[in-house]
Amino acid sequence: MRITIKVGSNVLTRADGTLNVERMDSLVDQIVNLRNDGHNVAFVTSGSMAAGRSMVSGFQSLNPVAQRQLLSSVGQVKLIDQYKQLFDKHGVRIGQILATKQDFGSRVHYLNMKNCFDVLWQNGVVPVVNENDAVSLNGLMFTDNDELSGLIASMLDCDKLLILSNIDGIFDGDPSDSSAKVIREVANGTSVSQYVRATKSGFGRGGMVTKCRSAQKTAQTGIDVYIANGNAPDVIKRIVANDPSLPRTHFQAGSPTPAIKKWIAYSDGFAAARIIVNQGAADALQDADKPASLLPVGVREFEGDFRKDDIILIIAPDGSPIAVGRAAMDKETAQRQAFAAKQKPLVHYDYLYVYPHLNQ
């Protein structure tokens, strides 16, 4: 089994910002046990900036970009050194991968990243992954490590993605209300957005909204996703064993998605252009019962230039993004084709990812 495990900053750090080594030790023990049982594990860890806060002073006077560069650069050294010591106790080697969103921007880079993970696994090494905050630009940063972990789980064709936070899962009400209960199962395509509040906590950059979106998007590609409390005893072991006593939210996997579509699903941040389609085309693309390609005649407006094989974002008449895909022709050809009696797809269904209706 292939498993991606993501652990948030609020699990890994104490209230004063120092690393919670005891918690890290417990998580490492559980990851090693999975590895020894024959599973391939990719470990996505936050915590570098939180670790950096406990090591340097005076950063408050810096601008936000400089703060991130300083704290993440210093903190990443401390973080990975601590993990090395913990994995060394078990005789297990780790390999550090610092990723930026740009690393996944082209199909070639994407496959090269995948090959790196495969090589580490083949040689018994556990990949330890974090975003390279020191060089990531604001416009091309991952929303948080939840997005990064979803992309990695999809790229590696994982069976499970575990998102460990400081909350038990998605609640059917305000988590502070004693009557609120954890939603244990979320069927594929089901929205839980009405239960999620746009709040953040502690040292993390994201919140439950991004966790929920990432979980539903990843589950749609055919991966079982779990959100659980990383502070719960033996949380990883209990999720994998499907322990009924553990509070957690399970986003049930949809149908397996071809590898090229998994890449396209996460490539919208690299779109070369936007295409606004008419209502007929929008309805056809969003009809889950009848897969459809986008024909040039369905385009109402082109925003930006693009070439064959570029990623393009497809927009509904109301301005909402509905899909992302790889262009089968350039803009000029598509404009000519719009008036042809017989048309070829501008975006073929095999290279089209339609967003799930998460917020309806």
Structure notes:
- With 360 residues, this protein is of the alpha/beta class.
- Helices cover 33% and strands 18% of the residues.
- It has 11 helices and 13 strands.
- The strands form 2 sheets. Strands 3-4-2-1-5-7-8-6 form an 8-stranded mixed sheet, sandwiched between helices.
- The radius of gyration is 21 Å and the shape is globular.
- The two termini are 33 Å apart.
- About 2% of the residues have low confidence.
Q: What key phrases describe this protein's structure?
A:
360 residues, alpha/beta, 8-stranded mixed β-sheet, 5-stranded mixed β-sheet, 11 helices
Widest sheet, order of strands: 3-4-2-1-5-7-8-6
Number of E-type strands: 13
Proportion of strand residues: 15-25%
Shape: globular
Count of helix runs: 11
Rounded mean pLDDT score: 88
- The succession of helices and strands, N to C, reads EHHEHHEHEHEEHEHEHEHEEEHE
Distance between the termini: 33 Å
Unreliable spans: 199-206
- Gyration radius (Cα, Å) is 21 Å
What structural class results from the helix and strand content?
alpha/beta
Helix content: 25-40%
Largest sheet: 8 strands, mixed
Brief rundown of the structure:
This protein is α/β, with parallel strands linked by helices. The protein is built from 11 helices and 13 strands.
